[in-house]
Amino acid sequence: GVRTTLATLEDGVWLGGDFSQLNGVSLGRLVKLDPRGRRAPATSHALNRVPLALLPLDNDRLLVGGDFTQSGAQVASHLLLIENSSGGRLPLSIGADNTVHALARQADGKILVGGAFASVGGVTRRAIARLNADLSVDTSFNLLLDANAVVRTIAVAPDGGIVLGGSFGALGIESRQNLAKVRADGSIQALFAPNPNGRVDSLLIAPNGEIYVGGTFSSIGGQARNRVARLNADGSLASFAPTVNAGTTRVSAIALQADGRVLLGGNGGLLKRVEATGANDPAWSLAFTGSADG
Q1: In the chain, how many H helices and how many E strands?
Q2: Pairing with 47, which of 14, 39, 91, 168 sits 20 to 30 Å away (CA)?
């Protein structure tokens, strides 16, 4: 099914996921739809594995990261650059040596890349790297995560800080379980240490700096939370504690509405909306089976 959706400007939506057809037409895991939901001409890319992250760089370029190593017959080492208007592939001189799970853009135009890799563009980087605006590796940014680290989600805070989620146990000499925050220069924010006891799969930062966290954990900040939590900007735990389905073992998608209500998606048939307090939204009655992944 569709794993990632991304609206690009006003001319359509790019969809990436583990699908092979759309409206009965054979496609290759990455496709653009026009505003009416129809496939835009010449915009399907036959990736050999799943794209996991889509990031618009400007008005006409889309950066794609994922598990793929080929686009059609051409090499595409977990990163791909696409021209939005034509749908064609653009030159990109760098790749990663393993899966790219997350892409995020800083206010200064630099791009954060997270995944399961050990190098990007031939430069040693464990699970997290930063690219300059010209898509070269930023050699000034080098976070030292543990050898088995995987960064699955990245979010940039209003204060410029970078929040990383995934599965890891250390950042530099500091113990950090699965969730950490660093400053834009890569220095660790020492007081931010929620330490969830399971993998973090999704992050969302609200305009006020509050951080929504989803994953496989059952505790965070030293208190019980079932797969989803909200943190204050300093990393302390907020009172938000929604219930999830009995069969849900991960929350992998979070969206925030303008009215403060929160949409949650995950496995075990989880697709629900809750109030800002975390209470179930009585107006939400959608029945859902399967997984909702963001």
Answers
A1: 0, 30
A2: 168
pLDDT in tens, 92-106: 999 999 999 999 999
Residue where the block lists tokens 């992944």: 293
Q: Give the tens place of pLDDT for each residue, 12-40.
A: 888 888 877 777 777 778 888 877 777 77
CA distance 122 to 156: 25
pLDDT in tens, 159-172: 999 999 999 999 99
Structure tokens at 32: 């653009």
**Alpha-carbon span 183 to 288, nearest angstrom:** 39
